[in-house]
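Run log, item B.
One chain of 252 residues. Sequence copied directly from the ordering sheet:
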Amino acid sequence: MAIGNVGLGARVEKEARTTEPLKTFLSRYFYLCMALVMVALVVWGFSNTVGANLFHANPPRPLLLWIHGAAFATWIVFFTLQSALVRVGKVGVHRFLGWFGAGLAVLMVVLGFTIAVVMTRFDAAVLHLKDVDSFLSIPFQDMIVFGTCIALAIYWRTRPEYHRRLVFIATCCLMDAAFGRFDFWYNHSIFYLGLDLLIVLGMVRDWVVDGRVHKVYRYALPLLIVSQSLATYAWRINPRWWQGFTHAILGL
């Protein structure tokens, strides 16, 4: 029995030595690494479309689209910078810049709703694309979720365990625009799956580091999946109630 206990103890000690570096790495660098992953996704995804649809577009796109793109790119840079500042211990600077982020988030929500309507009208009237109005459900859902998460993150700014997860989820919810630039993800209506997998990585991080998944994820992800499903349904099925709403918004 003593020999068995010694063997068990050795295995437990070996597993502890194996998992401890992973815990340390995820505890310290997870959010910074995920910010860099998101930067890569945005650059990779938009590199497929930004030339033809913005820089060299014919006809030229509205100026507001350029402002929208600049604001959202600034948010990705801001999220990366904030993650880096926490990592190097510059928490005071992180908090000071947080108010810039709050203002930027408000601007992004306003721009997000506005540009969705402007570009839908542009696509229909200038590019003569058909049945584009139903897609409004996607950017509207993005902005509702992003704005809600950021508002809660500001409310809980003195509770880092809530704050950082909410900002992370909010930023993940912008990634459908990047995933949607890949034809397979867009054509099969699964770009939401990509951003949900990013959030699941946050849950895995919690489980490895803390031994449990934080309740922010446990509440947010199911609600997020419901809202994504509703947005996808409105886009692809375009029920009569949604047609009435979009026609009213677009003035059709």
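Observations after the first pass:
- The chain has eleven helices and no strands.
- Residues 30-250 form one domain.
Flagged for discussion on Thursday.
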